[in-house]
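fold-stage: in
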Amino acid sequence: MKDSFVIKGNIIWSETNKELKSVENGYLVIKDGIVEGVFNTLPDEHKDLDFIDADNDLVVPGLVDLHVHAPQFAFRGTNMDLELMDWLNTYTFPEESKFSDTSYADRVYSYFTDAIKKSATTRMVAFSSLHVEGTLILMDKMEEIGIRSYIGKVNMDRNSPDELREESPEKAAQDTERWLKECVKRGYRYTKPIITPRFVPSCSDELMEKLSKIRKEWRLPVQSHLSENMGEVEFVKELAPWSKFYGDAYDRFGLFGDGCIMAHCVLSGEEEIELMKRNGVFVAHCPESNENIKSGIAPVRKYMDKGINVGLGSDIAGGTTESIFDAAVDAVKVSKLYWRLVDDSIEPLSFADAFYLATKGGGAFFGKVGSFEKGYDGDVLILSDDSIPFPRYLSPTERLERFAYLHGDRTGIKGKWVKGNKVL
C-alpha cells in the first residue's frame, strides 16, 4: 500500500525536549500511515513493505507551523520599520483588503502554497483574511498539496479600515457560518476550519460572544494573538477595562481553553501564564517576528517548565520565511538573549529543545504528530546535507543541527510524507 513503507537512513526524532533520539543506518517503518517504530535491524514481518533507501541522508519527522498569515506572504521581508499596531494599520491591513479580489487571492495563495509544499512543513495553522471566497481559495489550494492544516477566516469588526472590517457582529457571524457550511459542502479531507478572532483590539465583545457560540455549536478550535506587543497590551486595557489581563478578555467568552492557540505571549504575566496552563492553551512562539515587530522575547523556557504546550510559528509577514528550521534556530538565539539581558535564572534553549518544539511540541495540537514513537502519524522528511561538505565524522544529530543553522532546507528536502502519503 502507498502509505506503508520502510525508510532506511540516519533517523532522528524527539520523545522529550531533553534529547534527540537517533539511529544511524536504521529503519523507520510506516504502516497504514502510522509509525510502527524505528529499528536497528528490519523485523521480518516488515520485509515485504515498499523499501526506500535514503542512503546517508537524514530522516526526521515533519515540522509544524502553528502560526502564519497566508495573505501576508506577498510582502514578507519588507516594511519592518514599525511596531505592531502602526505596522498593521500602515502595511498589513491595506494588503489584506486586496483579498476581496478573488483573482489576487488566487495568485498570492498559489505562491504561498507552492512554498509550503516545498518546505519542511507538514502541518500548519494559518490565518486567511476576513473574505469568505478568498479563504476558500486558500483552503482549496492547501487541500491540493496534501499538507494537513487548519485555516481560519479572520473576524474583525472594529479598529480597522472600512474596507477590512465587517459591517456588524451579526454580519461577521453570518459570514463565518456561511464559510463553515461551504467547508462541509466541499468535503475537505486534509484542511479544517478554525475559529479566528484576529485579536481583542479588532473584535467587539458582541462579536466574541457570537464566535464563541459558533465554536461550541461546530466544536472547533480557536486561534488568535496574545500579549504580543506593549502598545497592543495597553490598547486591550482600554478596550476591556473589566478584564484582569489580556487572556481574560478571551476567557470570558470561552475562547481561551483546550483547542486554542495563542500566538506570541511575549508579555504574559504570572496570572495569564497560570490560566494558560490551567486551560490547556497552546503557545505559538514566533521568535523572528517578535524581533522584527519590536515586541521582545517570549519566556519560552518558563512556559515549557510549567508544562504549557508550546510550538513554533513562522508568523509571515512579521517573520520573513516559511522555514520552521529557521524558527527553531531563532528560538535558540533569542532565548540566549533573554537569559543574558532579561532573566539569568531562565535557562536558554538547546537545539534539542527547539527541534522538539518544531515537531512534537507543535504537533500535539494535531494529536499524535511530530515523533517516530509507535502510534504516531507518519509525517516524514528526508534531508540531504550533501551541499554542506564536512571533513570529519559528524553524528546524525550534529548534522541535523548544522543543517538547520546553515539553511539546508533551502535545497536539501529530498522527500516529504504526511501520514504516509507522499507530497514531495
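fold-stage: in (second)
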Amino acid sequence: MMKIIGTVAVLGTGLLGASLAKALKKRAVAEKVVAWSRSEQTREKCRAFPSVFDEVYDTPNQAVENADLVVVCSPTSNIVEVIESIVPSLKNGAFITDVGSVKEVVCQACRKVLEDKNAIFVGSHPMAGSEKIGIDFSDPELFEARPCFITPYSDGDERCAKKLAEIWEAVGMKVYSVPPDVHDSIVANISHLPHIVAGTLCNTALKFPELDLRNYSGPGFRDSTRISSGNPEIWDSIIADNRKEIVNALKNFSSELNSIIESIENCQSEKIGKFLRDAKAYRDKL
C-alpha cells in the first residue's frame, strides 16, 4: 500500500497524539512518525515503542525539521505558542494542523504566525477524546468511525485540507469540512455544553453531603456524568476560548430547562410527554 504522507511530526504524545501515531503506523499511512513531548517521562515511554515512533526528540524544533506534516496535540492554550516556537525549523511547504476543540481563535492566531512563511495551517478536531488522559491510554482504534472536523479559512487552504482529509479518513474517521466559526458553534452544543451539564449534575449532587449520593447512583448517573472526569485545566482553556458560543448554548439549554420546569410545576402532562418523546426519538437515531 502506498503511503499517503512522508514524515509526520506529532508534538504532544498524550492520549490523542500517541493514538494518532499508533494509527498512522498500524494503517501504513505515514512513512515515518517522529515525536516530541514536553514531559521527559512521556518521551521515554515513546522510545519504548520503536515500531510506532521512528524518532523521539528532546525539542519540538528538532522534531519538525524534516516533517511534511506537523500535528500539534497540546491543549488549546499552548497551540499558538508551540507553532511560534517551531517556525524557524519548519520544512518549506510543510502542512501544520492541531487537534484542539476550539478553532476560530486558534486558526486566526496560527495563520498570523505563519504569515509570509512557506507553510500552511489548517485546523483539525478529531472528536475522539476520552475522560482518560495520557499515553498509557492511547489506542490505534480511537478514531474508528468517529467524526473529525477540518476548518479551512479560504480556497488557498485547499491542498492542505485535502491531504488532511485523506489522512484522517485513513485512520478511520468521518471528515467534515466547515469554517472555524461554524465548528465552534457546533461543538459548543454537542461537546462543551454536555461537559458543563455533566459538571452541573455532579455539583448539584454535592449539595447533599450528608447523604453522599454516590452510594446510591446507578448507571444512569454514572453515564450522564462520565465526561466530567476530564482534565479541568484543559477544559478551563476550552471554555475561555469558546465562551461566546458556549454562553449561547447555555442560554438555549436554560430556556429548554425552564420550559420543562414550568410544565412539571403546572402538571402539564401533554407537554411533558412530548418533551420525553422528542428526546427519545432524537437519541434513538444517534
